[in-house]
Amino acid sequence: MLLLIPGPVQTDPRVRAAMAADIAPWDTDFRTEYAAIRAKVLELAGGLPGEHATLPLQGSGHFIVEAALRTFIPAGGRFLLPMNGTYAERIHRLASEAGRVPVTIELPDTRPVTAAELDAAFAAHPEVTHLCAVVSETGSGIINDPEVLGAAARRAGKRVILDAVSAFGAWPFRLADHPEVDALVFTPNKCLEGMPGVGFAVCPVERTRARHGQAGSWSLDLADVLLKAELTGSGTPRFTPAAQVLRAFGVALHLYEEEGGQPARLARYLENMRILREGMEALGLRPYLAAEHQGPIIGTFHQPGGGFELQRFVDALKRRGVLISNFYNTTEPTFRIGCIGTVAPDDMRHAVRVIGDVLRELNALPPELESQLMARPGLPPGDIL
Ligand SMILES: *Cc1c(COP(=O)(O)O)cnc(C)c1O
């Protein structure tokens, strides 16, 4: 099966194989692996040893995003949130339920927030302490560039929390160049092509340390993750870690470096995206985003008219070995195809061919033949495709 979803992504067999072992997380062997992963992540984030720390947390991406919000924004505190996609909406809910107050910039989900919009919002809301934003909006595929976000926050003297879950590892970013950032947050199961089950925040040490207890949740307190590392070493997990996921991540990081790191990964994803967009346009499908707003992570396309049904389309693709999401997160009906994961340009060409076959067959079918076949017992409608 070729998995073309924007996470958890298709992985290398060596990454999956690394999970097939029992692990004692407090054993010295594992502690060495864990500490090495934290050091490697710090390096990939462009963090400075001693100044920044890698803070892992069990759970999926939502958990680490909530942990960052809770740790750095005080209860009742207000922060700026550009609303241009479904993951911004998730930040809104995570923050609101945690008693942090989002001040939204309302935007369409088809383009990034601009510097002028950020400046205006900061000017109108001097009470906010932070800008919190999604870098790669996985609902549509746009990129809110951290360079634009960071520069606006620096001009306003505000701090930044970046949900870089579907960007980290592919989109260029160096913490050392972004003194305004309190937390850069990601998971291994997107552009780093690892497994789901753990999240990471990379944060400035001093600022994090000073916020111990502010989270209002022991489980989600990144300052407490830091304290644990400071007291017992960065190889010591706080609570039971997703040990197999971490070991697999170690292998994924090795493969990442072998491929050539961030520039190579971005280049492969961009090529995947180019093939996808050109292929879909050749099939007569309309991309949801203008070319200048298209990020490298995920392609969204307007659903064709007529009798198009997303689940039927997805089922037909799956029978041919290509799996895409059976839902969409844009304001208009679309379908989405991930360009990330252990997926090569040839896989993308194959996927475009398969999509073309399926669309032709879906459209080519005369309605009377379809109802005839659907009436036949034991034959699910999809099987005529
Ligand atoms: C995947 C993703 C998350 C986290 O989602 P989980 O399902 O909790 O892992 C958060 N933000 C963005 C932008 C994402 O793409």
UniProtKB/TrEMBL annotation:
It catalyses: (2-aminoethyl)phosphonate + pyruvate = phosphonoacetaldehyde + L-alanine. SUPFAM superfamilies: PLP-dependent transferases. This is 2-aminoethylphosphonate--pyruvate transaminase. The modification N6-(pyridoxal phosphate)lysine is found at residue 190. One of its GO terms (biological process) is organic phosphonate catabolic process. Coiled coil: none annotated. Keywords: Aminotransferase, Pyridoxal phosphate, Pyruvate, Transferase. InterPro entries: Aminotrans_V_dom, NH2EtPonate_pyrv_transaminase, PyrdxlP-dep_Trfase, PyrdxlP-dep_Trfase_major, PyrdxlP-dep_Trfase_small, SP_NH2Trfase/AEP_transaminase. Its cofactor is pyridoxal 5'-phosphate. Substrate binds at residue 336. Its EC number is 2.6.1.37. Residues 30-225 form the Aminotransferase class V domain. It comes from the Bacteria. One of its GO terms (molecular function) is 2-aminoethylphosphonate-pyruvate transaminase activity. Pfam families: Aminotran_5 (PF00266).
